[in-house]
Amino acid sequence: xxxxxxxKKLFRTAFLFFAGLTxxxxxxxxxNNQKNNKPLPGAEPLSADAVKGKNIYIANGCVACHTQQVxxxxxxxxxxxxxxxxADYADIHRTDIWRNTATLMGTERTGPDLTDVGNRxxxxxxxxxxxxxxxxxxxxxxxxxxSWLFTIKKQPAKSDVIxxxxxxxxxxxxxxxxxxxDALYLIAYLxxxxxxxxxxxxxxxxxxxxxxxxxxGATGATKELNGTTLYTANCQSCHQSNGEGLxxxxxxxxxSPVVNGDxxxxxxxxxxxxxxxxxxxxxxPPVGTNASLSSAEVTAILNHERSTWGxxxxxxxxxxxxxxxDFVKLQAPK
Amino acid sequence: xxxxxxxxxxxxxxxxxxxxxxxxSSGSIKGVLIIVITLLASLFPGHxxxxxxxxxxxxxxxxxxxxxxxxxxxxxxxxxxxxxxxxLSNMLRKxxxxxDLEEAALFADYLSTLTEEEAxxxxxxxxxxxxxKLTHHELSGDQEPVDKKGLVGNIETEGYxxxxxxxxxxxxxxxxxxxxxxxxxxxxxxxxxxxxxxxxIGEYVGIKFVAxxxxxxxxxxxxxxxxxxxxxxxxGWASLGMLGLGYYIVPMVSNAPLASIKKGWYALYLIxxxxxxxxxxxMAGINNGGGEYREYIWPVMLLFxxxxxxxxxxxxxxxxxxxxxxxxxxxxxxxxAIMFALTITVVAYVPIWQDGLGETIIQGYYxxxxxxxxxxxxxxxxxxxxxPQQLNRPIYSYSLGILAFWTQILFYTLIxxxxxxxxxxxxxxxxxxxxxxxxxxxxxxxxTTNFIMTFKGAWHKIAGSYTLPFFLVGIxxxxxxxxxxxxxxxxxTNLMWHFTDFTVAHSHLTMYGIICFFLWAGMYAVIPRxxxxxxxxxxxxxxxxxxxxxxLFYTVPLMIGSTLRGQMWIAGKPFIDSVVxxxxxxxxxxxxxxxxxxxxxxxxxxxxKMISKYETVDVKEAALEKLGQLIPAETKND
Lengths: 334, 638
Hints:
The complex is a heterodimer.
Chain A: H1 2-5, H2 7-36, H3 48-59, H4 86-89, H5 117-120, H6 124-132, E1 150-153, E2 162-163, E3 176-179, H7 181-192, H8 212-216, H9 218-222, H10 227-234, H11 236-239, H12 257-260, H13 264-273, H14 287-290, H15 295-307, H16 318-331
Helix pairs in contact in A: 3-7, 6-7, 10-15, 13-16, 15-16
Chain B: H1 3-15, H2 27-57, H3 64-113, H4 116-131, H5 178-210, H6 222-254, H7 261-284, H8 298-320, H9 329-349, H10 357-391, H11 398-412, H12 427-439, H13 441-455, H14 468-489, H15 491-497, H16 502-531, H17 537-570, H18 575-611, H19 619-637
């Protein structure tokens, strides 16, 4: 055929075919998407520190292991309260003249998703220790240690942010671990990562592919939840699997008067609303509220904590916890 | 009776003495033993099948304690049965021996009644028949072998054992332009260096999954090194390797010299510069924003782009000057791949359509067209030339190749966003990507059929060639790897596999299993034609097997582990549990990766051997030279 033997016609056709399809499936949808999506009313722009932190996040390729997208499937529920929307990314523009837009959605979840990590793990102390060497707080972690974002000083100045790192992780060096500006910027960025609430009255789209157990409903309610699993997912990164916490950063639950005592209002209040009263320890975020724990789940966690590591307190029931949760909700800081 | 026995009878007859028969029955005990063993063997499966069926019917048979008890009871019972069988067989044997002895006595009586003459004649005849042997010259005759027409090649005179199968040598071909030959070898050499560098980085990154505290330097941290690995093997190794083969194939199938060798050199410099600079930038923490395979910032990628533009012009000008009427299909694939690679790079780096999710839509498009329209398309072009050439037969169907070409463009272009299924990008766009992924079955099946049918009737050539096994592995992974991509694109499989290391396993099955194996096949075929030297067979074999086994060790455990990891996520297990779960699979990955890395050392060695200037002494050539020196000397003396 003449067409196949004429290189100009052949290659021009192939190119136009490909270019046409490219316009249809890539360029037009992209243009359309950036034109028709605006940030949510509640969205706050990144602070100056967080912007610098985001640049450090980009430079170190954190996106290789951490996604920032909550998919509309049930298994992603643990990463955010609602599926991600195009509006969530609408305010992200070109970084600078050299570098492209960084939505940082990622394609691999070797580590946890970070869309809502500002709500899930807002503790600055935890984040700093974790960044210095993740294995300090999460023994099984395989995340790189970013110890080069810290300096070790014999006599830190007053303004220095000191990080409480156990001696075993100092590689024999002596002195105090001080966070550099870069480390603080990065933490500022991580703390700024929060899912924006939808404007009042707008229902979030549903998570698909619900787990069978949940749809089963009535039968699931009578079954007791696994407190160990819930503890691992929500509490262990600070209070550790042995319940001993981390001296100087996170208090122990083993032998704790709050855990073993009868003042359940204080206990549940700390889980649901956070706590900052104790000198020598970091601030505890409102873990229960952030993770939207149900009364059954809180009960399971309480019973796990009250019966492990030598703790031996009375079992609590879901009914009493439900009442207390309704009560402490009123005390929540607005 | 056998010959020996006859001899003995004759002897005895001659001495006129009593006769003896030494009939033997030692075989019978063996027979009984075999029967016992078979009986035992048949008892065991029978017993276990019984237990299993029981277990499904009655609950108690699934109890460990019950099963153990039954097994314990069965042991003495079985032992008693065995003992009984042995006793019975002994009794039977004794009885049979007695009968045999009686028969022997009768036979001896008969033999003794015969006269010597009668017996001798019959027995001597029989002995002569039994002792008959061939002389080994019945068919060949006594003459020396002569090959008058020079048909026999590859004569092995030393009768040693072949530890390595002898493969066919590359055929001597007309020399190609030494200038072009030098250019192509430089492309291959740079590619091999980037392969070594890129996979060393990859190996180290893989080890970091097992030993995260291996080092604490910012330039060597995981997030920075991962793109160094992927980009070095993409733009350094695979791209330069493909282009090097392209510089051989395009002029060859156009039957015209390359338009400009100078442009070829410039392209080589530019692409090398891009990978060197890109690597340094990435390690220093300067990258484009995290989209996979476009981590290089635009000034770096611009160098690469200019290199491709020069190559495109060069190839099209060569094709324009072709002496053949038709454009061979390899050139369709190769030229289109370069045009498309340039298109996607422009689309990926122009900032107009990259705000918000625009960036993600472009990213999905870019990363998949990068592998499908650049690496896969170009490599298919290479295979359409090199495979028929190595098999010494035409491609099975030219029209299937054309079908695969157009359908690849149609379907592949659509599938980019399947990397973002369930994300916030439009649902219809995700659906198109999934449909396109299913459509990819057409070009893949067409291509595979074409290659396999080209092999038809020439399968025996694989055993005698060291390039064809590489092609065959490439074809197998082209089929399985590509269809695995289709399987991964569905919404249901995305739940399980997306975000896990399954994607990593898939990309290694395809980029390594398909692209790298085809490139090696092409290089092992082309380089001997340029230099006249071949690599030692044993190290080519080592390269092949280490790469193949390493790839399987790398991918199979990773696929199993990530499937289980996805299941844990679906079941809502704590995230850290899924990290702990992956540890052994990551170790296997590191082991497989080490084997692959080792195979690249062998490849580098083979490459060196193929281009090395050091000559091994060719006895015949050297003898001719000596003769040349001797004859003038002799004539002078005369």
